[in-house]
Q: What sequence folds into this?
């Protein structure tokens, strides 16, 4: 998700590494802190792959700043990652939210819908933190108040996300239909 985030933010505009790290921390830092030990090796891999380039630009005063830019192949890689996310990027909530943060960069609404539909399909499957013989736990059968709390909160979040996904999928379909309607 770090690679996707780097490419996504640089597709919005060029940035120097410190600014990029701030944006990354705002997006994913609450789950996994973004250290220099993670960021700089990721940037080097992206530079070696030709997805990101560094250019010296005048800074404030006499200092020269190294500004990171996404390349054409970086944009292609970003679109590939957005249009065909790995299963873990669909099923893991934090990873999906990172994907969602950049999904508007994907210009094809059909591809956007396909990603959202994959997440909705995943959320439509029975799931639970605690199961009995493969069946999801019923809240009333859980005695531990804290585990019961986990189930209550998880199910509410799941219901809310499903509602948003269904509404957004409808809106994207309606927009697509409006784009294809003959002009009078």
A:
């Amino acid at each position: 998700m770090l690679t996707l985030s780097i490419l996504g933010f640089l597709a919005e505009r060029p940035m120097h590494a410190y600014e990029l790290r701030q944006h990354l921390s705002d997006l994913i830092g609450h789950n996994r802190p973004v250290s220099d030990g993670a960021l700089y090796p990721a940037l080097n891999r992206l530079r070696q792959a030709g997805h990101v380039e560094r250019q010296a630009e005048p800074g404030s005063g006499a200092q020269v700043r190294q500004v990171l830019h996404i390349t054409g192949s970086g944009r292609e890689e970003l679109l590939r990652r957005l249009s065909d996310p790995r299963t873990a990027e669909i099923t893991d909530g934090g990873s999906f939210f990172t994907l969602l943060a950049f999904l508007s960069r994907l210009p094809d609404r059909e591809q956007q819908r396909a990603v959202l539909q994959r997440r909705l399909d995943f959320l439509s499957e029975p799931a639970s933190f605690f199961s009995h013989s493969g069946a999801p736990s019923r809240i009333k059968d859980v005695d531990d108040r804290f585990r019961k709390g986990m189930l209550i909160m998880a199910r509410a979040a799941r219901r809310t996300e499903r509602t948003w996904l269904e509404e957004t999928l409808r809106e994207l379909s309606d927009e697509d239909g409006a784009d294809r309607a003959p002009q009078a």
In short: Residues 108-180 form one domain. The mean pLDDT is 88.
